[in-house]
Structures are given as C-alpha cells and as structure tokens.
Amino acid sequence: MNDDFHEHFNRYLHDFRSAGGGGLSPDLIDLPEFMGQGTITRTKLRPGMELIVANCRLNDDRTIRFHSETPMIELSFWLDGSIMCSLGGERQAAGLPQSRLLFARRMRSETRYKGGQTIETCGIRLSESAFASLIGSLGGDAPLNWKRLLAEGEMSARVFCQAIDPAEQLHIRRLLACPYVPALRNMYLEGTVLELLAGYLQRYLFDDREACRKDAKKLGRTVAASIRSAADTLVRRMDDPPSLPELARLVQLSEFKLKAGFKELYGTTVFGYLRERRMERALQLLEQEKISIYEASLMTGYSNPSHFAAVFRDKFGLNPSRWRRDKS
Is 60 exceeded by the pLDDT of residue 323? Predict the structure, then answer.
C-alpha cells in the first residue's frame, strides 16, 4: 500500500519530466531548458514517507493542478519564490517563508509559480498508514485523534500555516545542505525529517495555549501588559538595551516583578529573552548579503564580534561565517 502511495504522486511531477531513480536513491528531475533551470529531488525515506525538495527557476508563470483521492499528511516549507496556492478553491496564505501542515483525505489543489524567480521549497509527505504508525509509536494514550484530522468532507483537508522564524530556517537549510556522505544520507534525512515533524505536530496539535493564557491571567492584566511592553522595548532597542533597573522604571514595575514576570510569561530571564531575539535578528541580517558579520554583531548589540560568534555558535551549533557559507 505504501509503495502505491509513492507511485500515486508520480503523476504530480509528470509535467516536470522525471528522469529515473529507484530504490532509496532520490528521484532527480532536471528541468528541461524550455521550462527553466534547476532540479527537483524526491527521496523515499521509508515506506509511506518521502521528501521532496525543489530549487529551480521557471522561465514563465506556470500553474500545476492536482487532484488526489489518496489520504496523506504533508509538512511543507516554502522558503523562496512567488507562490500562490489554493485548496478546494480556497486560497491559502502565501507570505514567505512559510510552513504548512496539511491533513487530507482527498484533495484538489492548484499551485501557481511565478516565472523568472527562484523557487525553493521542501516537503515531507506521509501516507495515512505511515503517519498512524508514527503516532502509535509514541506509546501511551497520545492525545491526538488523527482520524478526525482526516475527516470526511467535500475537500476533506485541514491546514495549519505559519511563518517560519529565522532559527527554524537554519534547521531546514541544514536539512537541504545534508552534510553527510551518500551512505549516511538517508539516515540523516530521516532523522531530521522526524525531528521537524515532531516539532510542528507539537506546535500545532499538542501545545497547551491555554496554559499561556493562564500564566498571563495569574500575573494580572496590568502587570502582563507591562511585561509585554518591556519585551517590546528590548527588541526595539536591542543594539543598546536599557539596564534592568532602567527597564523596570520604564514599565513602572519593581525589578523583582519584572524578572518574575518574564519567567512566568516567556519561560526565561530578561537577558535570555533578549539573547533569543538578538539571534533571530542576526539570522535575518545575515540573510542580506551586504550585511557583514561585524555589522550584524553591532546591530544586535554585540560590540565584540568574537562574543557575538560565540553566542551564535552556542545557539545554532555553528559559526556565523560557516552558516553563511552553507547557505550559499
């Protein structure tokens, strides 16, 4: 049944003239010159699970229509390019970079790609039985009714969309770069895919947002608003942030309430919150090729580039210069 799942989706890529591939090797699709340039790779990671990566540029605008009666779960990342997608005639949000988690029993989709622009996407696709097996392997009584997520209906699809933050982009780009030798490639890809899938299932289906609301309620509306104001101030002034006493005065809280409030609302210290936002901003700056690592360190409040590099490495596991090389 899972082999049929892979064969079924060959029809989606038919227009791109698939060029061979078998077993556990990725299907490699080189776009013909009349259509554009670049590649699409399709890797079968295990029965009922595949990874599709596109990095290409089309000569002209192109619309791909697809109709499927095969149940599937797909986690996709749209990183670059002008892409518009609709499911069952309903247009999906198209701000990039974006993640999309889709549960579908049957689906009718239309995706429009803009010509002359780089298209960079990554999709993790699972059959119903492969997904059920993964959920079953969680053990215990997992609070996820996946059959309800694949409910019947005219379109019978449920979609969760969200922007991808810079830290997540780094994780996804590591997947695309795949630094391992061919013999270990699939092992690395499957492990990273499962990690991403678990993270997004946690975010969309398991996270207890009510707990966050309770934390804010516990603080009181006025104090919670002051804590959020303090957080906004830190982000706005991250290149030259106020000291803790000054920040407390600005939002009219005692230092004790300020520190306790950050811990309650954001689960971290005031400095920890600032460091996270600085690293997110650093990744955004390094996306711009004209911004040097030294400039990025100054713009995020680090006068010492070595200290900046050390914090970056501690957060993301590699130096900013290495990250830039891997990305390019």
Answer: yes
Question: Residue 218's CB: how many other CB atoms inside 10 A?
Answer: 11
Residue 175, H or E segment:
helix 166-177
Which helix (H) or strand (E) segment holds residue 85: the answer is strand 83-87
pTM above 0.90, yes or no: no
The predicted pLDDT at position 18 comes to 44
> How many separate helices (H) and strands (E) can be counted in the chain?
13, 11
CA pair distance 218, 79, nearest whole angstrom: 38
CA distance 298 to 89: 47
Q: Among all chains, which residue has been given the structure tokens 């970056």?
A: 312
Rounded Cα distance between 140 and 137, Å, is: 9
> Whose CA is closest to 9, among 45, 49, 37, 36?
49
Name 54's Cβ contacts closer than 8 Å, sequence gap at least 6. 38, 39, 40, 119, 120, 121, 122
- On the CB side of 36, CA atoms within 13 Å amount to 23
End-to-end CA distance of the chain: give it in Å, rounded.
39
Rounded mean pLDDT, 259-273:
89
Q: What is the mean pLDDT of residues 229-249?
A: 91
Rounded Cα–Cα distance for residues 239 and 232 (Å): 13
Residue 50 forms beta bridges with which residues?
44, 125
Which amino acid, residue 258?
L
Distance between CA atoms of 256 and 263, rounded to whole angstroms?
Answer: 11
More confident residue, 9 or 59: 59
Identify the band that residue 11 occupies on the pLDDT scale cut at 50, 70 and 90. low
- The confidence score (pLDDT) of residue 4 equals 61
For residues 39 and 311, give the distance between their C-alpha atoms in angstroms, rounded to a whole number.
35
Q: Name the token pair of 278.
A: 């600085």
Beta bridge partners of 103: 73, 158
pLDDT at 174 > cutoff 60: yes
Nearest to 26 by CA among 39, 8, 12: 39
Q: Which residue has the tokens 């207890």?
A: 208
